[in-house]
Design goal:
binds zinc ion, 9-stranded mixed β-sheet, Aminopeptidase, 410 residues, Alpha-Beta Plaits, alpha/beta, 2 domains, 4-stranded antiparallel β-sheet, single chain, 11 helices
Length: 410
């Protein structure tokens, strides 16, 4: 069945990825945050490619780009995001959009319109690189889960999300119009962003679970004072307290299977070499694929922070973001595995340690996530790379699954 589908051109997918990656708000590295003129430019380029493939295109009220094939009915949605982190590579997000496009282009050219509708989506603001509190804004909008309170969150230049949307030509008041109630299922192809597939020499990863995550903001207050005149035993150095907490994180995470804890954002106040730090703000990212483990890990990190109060520090904590783990659909996962087998591609089951739009969809419709190997497991950096043959394999397996669901069955 799958073998009758013509071969997808991986070099063409890669060429387009590199063309898109030229569109950046920074001159020397890739950053394409949402609702910027550069995102608009990328969206117009994608729109022209969607149309060339035979898709009818439209923008929804959140700014997600959609391309549709087929008539009325429950929709199979495929895609990923088009925004990037600061200093990104060319593959995160857009590889999923362009593998989906290649799959659809091949199917439409060879078999004509599907019996059941298929849509390809390129979503806004998955990364939260412009509005950290509004990550997954595009997928949340499609699912009717975009919290209107977040419209007042601000970027580094103090522009609100509502204003950024308006500047890009989208009316925030119309956001509820982006909601879809006609989705049958969701597929996402994504680079693994880790080293497992490459290390094990396996071509594709079928994701069973996307890990849950929490972001805990911790503020530790000590006493700022002169670095030269304050004896060591008469200080309350907020950074010493914060460092103690950070050193405890690996031990806390190791108590739970496949859990992680990372203090990746650290601000020291007042931030002078000759002043004892008076205050430190940390963001702790913690993740676990099991919901109970995630809740316990979050509690234990919170307790570890508050234990510094016994040493005289002031401590406040605030849960800034929380996403439960997502179990992906077994039936769709088995279909991807079967299509991979039929195309003689090796595959394995995996847990995703990174968050993806797919985990939002999984809460409402059967959803599947297919991982491609990326060189040295590197991502969110300019070295990010996936080989043309790996991109082609992802698109080919997706095409085989779509063919079965939307062209053969109704
Ligand atoms: Zn991504």
């Amino acid at each position: 069945m799958c073998k009758s589908i013509p071969t997808v051109d991986g070099a063409e997918i890669q060429r387009r990825l590199h063309e898109l990656a030229q569109i950046s708000v920074l001159p020397d590295r890739l950053w394409r945050p949402s609702y910027t003129p550069q995102e608009g430019q990328a969206r117009r380029l994608l729109t022209s490619w969607f149309a060339q493939a035979g898709l009818s295109t439209r923008l929804d009220a959140a700014g997600n780009l959609l391309g549709r094939a087929g008539g009325a009915g429950q929709v199979t949605l495929i895609g990923s995001h088009m925004d990037t982190v600061k200093g990104a590579g060319a593959y995160d997000g857009t590889a999923g959009v362009l593998c989906g496009l290649a799959a659809l282009q091949t199917l439409l050219a060879h078999f004509g319109p599907p019996r059941a509708p298929v849509e390809l989506v390129a979503m806004v603001e998955e990364e939260g690189s412009r509005f950290p509190d509004a990550s997954f804004w595009g997928s949340r909008s499609i699912l009717g889960q975009a919290d209107p309170a977040l419209l007042s969150c601000r970027d580094e230049a103090e522009v609100t999300l509502a204003q950024a949307m308006a500047d890009a030509g989208f009316d925030p008041a119309r956001l509820p119009d982006a909601r879809r109630t006609d989705l049958a299922r969701y597929f996402e192809v994504h680079i693994e962003q880790g080293p497992v597939l490459e290390h094990r020499g396996i071509q594709l990863g079928v994701v069973d679970t996307i890990t849950g995550l929490g972001t805990l903001a911790v503020e530790i207050t000590g006493r700022a004072n002169h670095a030269g005149t304050t004896p060591m035993d008469l200080r309350l150095d907020a950074l010493q307290g914060a460092a103690g907490l950070v050193l405890r994180l690996p031990g806390l995470a190791r108590r739970f299977q496949n859990a992680t804890a990372t203090a990746g954002s650290f601000q020291v106040f007042p931030g002078s070499a000759n002043v004892i730090p008076g205050r430190v703000s940390i963001l702790v990212d913690y993740r676990a694929p099991d919901p109970d483990d995630l809740a316990r890990l979050g509690r234990e990190i919170d307790q570890a922070a508050h234990s510094l109060e016994a040493e005289g520090y002031g401590v406040t904590t605030q849960l800034r973001m929380s996403l439960p783990p997502a179990r992906l659909d077994r039936g769709l996962g088995a279909l991807l595995e079967q299509c991979a087998d039929e195309l003689s591609c090796s595959s394995m089951h995996m847990i995703s340690g990174a968050g993806h739009d797919c985990q939002l969809f999984a809460g409402q419709v059967p959803s599947a996530l297919l991982f491609l190997p990326c060189r040295d497991g590197r991502s969110h950096c300019p070295e990010e790379y996936a080989a043309p043959e790996d991109l082609a394999r992802g698109a080919q397996v997706l095409a085989a699954a779509l063919y079965r669901l939307a062209w053969q069955e109704t």
